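Example: Catechol 2,3-dioxygenase.
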Amino acid sequence: MSNNIIVKHIQGVAPLLQVFDMPVALSFYRDVLGFEVVQASGEGDDVDWVLLKLNSIELMLNTAYEKPERPSDPDEQRIAAHADTSLYFGHPDIDELYSYLLSKGMHLKEPQITGYGWNAIYLLDPDGYLLCFHWPVA
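Written out as C-alpha cells, the predicted fold is:
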C-alpha cells in the first residue's frame, strides 16, 4: 500500500488547549460559544479533559495541572506563552456575532478588515488563547 493511499484517510483536526480552570473554560466554550461536550474524563464540569464539538469543529481542553498540584492562581508565564497560539473560526455575520459576544459580557474591539480582506473580531479566552472569528468581505 502506498503512503499516498494511507495518508489520504487522515480526517479532521482537534487542537488540544491546556486550561487552568476547567469549569471556567467550559463556561466560555460551551455556554458562550455553543460547543457541546461530546466526551469527558468524568462527570460534571470539574473534569481533567473534554472533547468539544460545534458544527464541524472539534476542540479538546485539558487541565494544565493535576488537582493536587494546581496553584491557587494561574502562572503568568504559562499564560504569556499562549500568545503564540491562535484559533481562527469562520462566521458569515461578524457584526451579528460581535453584538452577541458583547451581550455575553465579552470584551473585544469592534470588527475590523484584515490585511487579507476579511472582516474579523478578536478576543482572548479565559486562558489567554487568541480567538479570531472572520469571514471574507463580500
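The CA atoms of residues 31 and 104 lie 9 Å apart.
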